[in-house]
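**Protein fold record**
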Amino acid sequence: MRALVTGAQGFIGRAVVAGLHARGWQVTALDLTGPSAPLPGVDVVTADIRRLDGWRSAIERAEVILHLASAHLQVNLPESVYWETNVKSLRPFLEAARAAGVKHFVHTSSVGVHGSLAVVPGNEDSPFAPENLYEKTKAAGEAEVTRFIPDAGSMGVTIVRPGWVYGPGDPRTEKILGAVARGRFVIFGGGKNQRHPIYIDDYVEGMAQILLKPQTYGRTYVLAGPSYLSSRELVQAAEQVTGGRTRLRVPLPVGYAAGLGAEMVCKVLRASPPISRRTLAFFTNQNAFDTARARREFGFAPPTGIVEGFRRVWESMGRNGPTRGH
């Protein structure tokens, strides 16, 4: 089987490419930049998803497309690029895939389209309440895909909303573990809000299970781990794995003030702020989900708990660079 993966150089994209390749798929990896370490047997296409002429030939070779490319965490990226990449590029991409005879198009959205849930746990039918530019454009992108589905013809279309995907090589997870290990991690507020992580290998398995399953066509799925837990429990898992201790606790209002100040200064300096109001969402947003639909409709049952997942990340950090003493 032949698969095209867009956004193939991101943390999730790299894992999806490697996972499908290991399962015997012929994979084409598409991104703005080429890989630093090419995977033997994987074709590479360097193209901008906003430019149809750059990737049309890649579509013509694909039976399935896993669309992960998006504007996400890039510093100082113009707002227009978010809308062009996450929304406006979708209809032409879907139409080209249909014309090329693609069998299944899997669009990657985000649980961020729900914002902070009013009722926990949420599910695929929970109201949309996006809060930042990324979440707003992902919600608008889902609307584009949903409008296209009646016109998809014989091409199956599925929408996937991943939770917090983490694992070895994920900078955010490594930053958390490193800070906890050094006793420098700061908890803002009480840490009672719910988070729902999913280990990268479990996420890749879920994506592989979806492909070419007719029961998933026209459906939307939240893919998240075996359990959700509070942000404080997440930090405690990091403490258990690293042997570190979290001693710094700051009231949320102080954190918001510091985040706003850092954003203003770093905007002038065109730099990434060390803290922002968006990063504080880790301690405020409610992001916990019932994944019964995925379990019921294609047998999704991710096995990796947070302690085991963090342990694998921590061991990888020790092998590849950051350690407790750094």
Notes: The chain has a mean pLDDT of 91. DSSP finds eleven helices and 13 strands in the chain.
